[in-house]
Structure formats: C-alpha cells, structure tokens
Amino acid sequence: MADLPAARYVPLTIAGDEATLTGQQRELIGRVAELGPGWAARAARHDREASFPHENFAELRAAGLLGIAVPRDHGGLGADFTTHALVSAEMGRWCGATALAFNMHVSCCQWSGLVADALQMTAAERAEHGRIRALHYARIVGEGQLYAQAASEGGPAAAGAAPWATSARRVDGGYVVNGRKVFASLAGAAQWYGVPCTLERPGHEGRGTRRDALYLAVPADAPGLEIHGEWDALGMRATASRNLRFRDVFVPDEARLLPEGLYHQAAARFPHMFSTLAPTYVGIAQAAYDFTVQYLRAEVPGMPHVLRRMYPTKQFAVAEMRIKLEATRALFLQCAREARVDPDKDARMRLYAAHHAVMENAHEICRLAVRTCGGQGMLKSLPLERLFRDSRCGSLMLPWTAELCLDRLGRECLYEAGEGDEQIEA
Ligand SMILES: Cc1cc2nc3c(=O)[nH]c(=O)nc-3n(C[C@H](O)[C@H](O)[C@H](O)COP(=O)(O)OP(=O)(O)OC[C@H]3O[C@@H](n4cnc5c(N)ncnc54)[C@H](O)[C@@H]3O)c2cc1C
C-alpha cells in the first residue's frame, strides 16, 4: 500500500469561518495572503534595522489596496468597516508593522469617507466636503500617495482628556498650523499627515475646547514641517513612528479632511474608529498560534525535524492559546460587524471589552507561544520573538490603552448617562 502523504497543518482563515465572508472580503483577504509571504520574509530585516517597509507599500499600491476605504464613486474599493478590519487582520499575521502603518493611512480615508457619510452636515458642508475629499482620494487612487495619522502629542489630548495642543489659525485661503506630534507612524514615508488640531477662534486663542477640533491633511513637503527624533522601540520597529514639528505651516482650505466642527461629532458618534488598531493585533495572535502549531508538529521550514506535539504539557498550552484566540476573534468580529454611527451603550461597552481583550490577549498568546515553543523557538532567526515584542505595543496605544479601556468600561458598568454619586447618596 502506498504511503499516505504526510498531513500538514493548514492555518485557519483569519475570519475563523470562511463561509461567513462576503465575496469582496474573500477576494481582498486573498490579495493580502498572496503578498504576505514576501512581507514575512522581509520582516526580520526591517525589524532589525527599524527601517520602513517601502517594498510592502509598493506592493499594496500595485494591488490597488491603498484605496481600500476610498468610496467606489471616487475610484476606490469602497470596503466597509468590517471588510477593512478583516483585511487588516490578515496583514497583521504576515507583518505587524506593515498592518499598523497601513491602518493609519486607511483611517484618514475612513474618517473622511464612511464616517463623514454617517454624520449630520448641512447640504453646503456636504457639497464642499465632497469637493475636497475628491482631491485627497484622487491622490491616493490615482497617484498612490500615502496618508499618515499624526494625532498623539505626548500629552493628554490623544487620550481625549484635553483639547489638541496643536493649533490651527484661520488665515486667507486656509490655516496656519503650529505644534508637535509624537509617534507618527509612516514618518518620512507618507506624502500627507492627517493632523487633528484645535481651531483658534479670534479673541479666544489658547482657550479652545475639544469641540473646536479640526482635522487637516498637511503635505510632507510643507515649509515649516519637520520630522525629528529617532524611532528605536521595543516593537513595531518598522513603523517609522517619529515625531513631527509644525512651525507656522500654511495649508489651504482643501487640507480639511472633515468640515470645521465635525471632528468632535465624528469622534463622539463613531467610537469604532478608535478600535481600528485592534485588527493588526488579531493577526499577530493568529500568527503566534499558527507558528506554535507548526513548531510542535516539526513543520517550521529550515528547523530540524523534532516532534514535540506528543507531550501533554504542550497540548495543554496550545489548547489554552486556541481558547484565547477563539474568544478574542469572536469578540473582535462581533464588534467589527456592529460598527455604525451612534452605537447604543451596550455596543460601546462591548467595544471597550473587545479592544482590551484583543490587545491584552494578543500579547498573552505570544507569551504562551514563547513559553511553549521553548528556547529554540525564541531565536532571532524565527518570527516568534518579534511577534512577542510587537504584540506588547497594542495596549500602549492611545486613545484606548488597556488602562483607559478599563477606566471607561468600569465607569459605564456602574453609572448611567448623566448619573453622579450624589443621586445614590441622597
Ligand atoms: C507602535 C506604535 C505606533 C504608533 N503610531 C502612532 C501614529 O501613527 N499616530 C499617532 O497619533 N500615535 C501613534 N502612536 C502613539 C500612541 O497612540 C500613544 O500616543 C502613545 O503610545 C502614548 O504613549 P505615552 O507614554 O506618551 O502616553 P501618556 O499620555 O504618557 O500616557 C501613559 C499612560 O497613562 C494612561 N493615561 C493617559 N491619559 C490618561 C487619562 N486621562 N486617564 C487615565 N489614564 C491615562 C494611559 O494608559 C497611557 O498608556 C503609536 C504608538 C506605538 C507604540
């Protein structure tokens, strides 16, 4: 009797169940899966050098994926929120830094696209927004330009606890921007920086509130814009998340990614946008699980054929990883599919829970993977130690760090809208 071919582990689809995917989701995930092995092969070098993966973005450009969230009537793929989340997670399983940086680019399209479409605007505002975003989308779809998302300032604003310290002053034909941003992924690689700032009202300079937030796209070559500082971090080293300084940077009216006054409404009414960092880490968790199974089955290319799967301790550990992965994915998918304007309180609370679970469990799954695969599994020649370091970054990212998710969720568990302790004490 002929020998049966050796069975090999076939990694799961990122959605868990392929049958739940739409045609577009299957097609776009497939496009990323074709590019992925090349990214994985380059990931160690970019991680070691802390260099930006320009080649991966050239491939994304060639595959038409830069316009994933650009509406179809502007020549993009018009992917909805869920589709982008799934595609982004697929990216994360091949190269976390590419997925995270790509997400910053896509965020600019989503805020000005699917989120703006769901907001209240006057007819004049909508027409003007349509005119302006068409210019931005043409640069992305037609010229393959990249947009970064430079929000964090190293102070309380990115946590939603204060107005943006970066200011925009109205002048003839546009705005003058002053301030600084930290950790802007794609620094030096992007042609545009999406910059939330505070619009200064004449006579109220320095006294703006969060309602005065204005979201501008600043061109990388604008006089007065400087990229500075190094990016030599624990993980996500290929994101090139350096700092930006704006000194009297003029941008025209067409820089607005949302009409004046709309950013605050967008942030308050579409909280799922703050969880778009999570899919990257779902992908990392999946990659750590897949690696562990392959390692224990002695199927990692280039590794000696040493089987480890028969030890109960390994089986328990991998079962624990699978349980965490399944729970994390289920919550992530539910929230991605619930994304909409004005989610109710339960959906918002579930979203905080999902974001926390993804970020913490991704690192926990990587920790278990390192522990389970053992010493030879953590060598720099293998991807696991990079996954472990990259996975640590998710919980540190504002506005929804793990701490802030707990803070918001705990408060919402115990207080109803408008409720204060005096009502309980009375
Ligand atoms: C890999 C990576 C890529 C990044 N890319 C980008 C990017 O492209 N664009 C961008 O804008 N930012 C980016 N960031 C920055 C990120 O979103 C955070 O701003 C940054 O990690 C915050 O670091 P910090 O120590 O300065 O935070 P701090 O503001 O000093 O906060 C430290 C911790 O205190 C807690 N905290 C803060 N404020 C409050 C509060 N009001 N109440 C309770 N607790 C609070 C939080 O848990 C927080 O983690 C990136 C970060 C990483 C790690």
Note the main attributes of this structure:
Butyryl-Coa Dehydrogenase, subunit A, domain 1, 7-stranded mixed beta sheet, binds flavin-adenine dinucleotide, 12 helices, Butyryl-CoA Dehydrogenase, subunit A, domain 2, 7 strands, alpha/beta, 426 residues, 3 domains, Butyryl-CoA Dehydrogenase, subunit A, domain 3
CATH architectural grouping of the largest domain: Up-down Bundle
Whole-number count of domains: 3
CATH topology of the largest domain: Butyryl-CoA Dehydrogenase, subunit A, domain 3
Any ligands, ions or cofactors bound here, and which? flavin-adenine dinucleotide
Any idea of the CATH class of the largest domain? Mainly Alpha
Q: What is the CATH homology-level superfamily of the largest domain?
A: Butyryl-CoA Dehydrogenase, subunit A, domain 3
- Radius of gyration, in Å, reads 22 Å
Q: How far do the termini sit from each other?
A: 83 Å
Major sheet summary line: 7 strands, mixed
Q: How much helicity do the residues have? A: 40-55%
Report the principal-axis shape.
Answer: globular
Mean pLDDT: 95
User: Spans with pLDDT under 50 lasting ≥5 residues?
Assistant: none
Topology, number of strands: 7
